[in-house]
Amino acid sequence: MNKSLITNLISILLLIIGYQIQNTIVLYAGLFAFSGAITNWLAIHMLFEKVPGLYGSGVIPARFEEFKAAIKHLMMDQFFTQKNIDKFVNQGMSSATSLDLAPVIKKIDLSPSFDSLTDVIMNSSFGGMLTMLGGVEAIQPLKQPFVEKMQSSIIDISQSEQVKQALKEQFEQPAMLEDIQTNIEKIIDQRLNELTPKMVKEIVQTMIQKHLGWLVVWGGIFGGLIGVISAIISAA
Question: DSSP letters of 130-196?
């Protein structure tokens, strides 16, 4: 239901009826109601559309860049402050699941660590003895058990309170928070740059026109009341 259209139609109907029956009160009520409703409707329309000859109309598309800057300012100064980011990090760090590094560690290839260990052994005083026993090939069967043991040990270490506290302290460093904030700002800039004046107009228009429609309704009602009062005063 278009509240603006209905209000304008009712006010015009009152205007016509008042004129036809020569009733000053109804005529003034319709005239002033239409005046208030159409004025408020035009004001809403001028927010989004340029009206020739009316300075300041089409303010939202015309102030597109300022509108984007205001959105960015609101998001960065109200939501993504360093205080809020620090609060988010602390809440995340207080959760055990957020510090479960096991899935990450399991994806790491620890084979090079075994190869490095093999090189160290072969270049040590045990190298000659190991060569007599078959050299590098003799210890290859130990590779997989070694990798699994290393993964298990690293996972155990990562789940210790000392490591959790160290990670938390690292995330709480001002430089870290600043980096997070800078990255968020870049993402916001990228998303805002994808907006066009038409998209912004449609977003805002859809969002507020439903509520601003009541301005037209109340403009018609108060205009009608003023018309009735004016008719009564003029007749007195």
Answer: HHHTTTHHHHGGGHHHHHHHHHHHHHHHHTSHHHHHHHHHHHTSHHHHHHHHHHHHHHHHHHHHT--
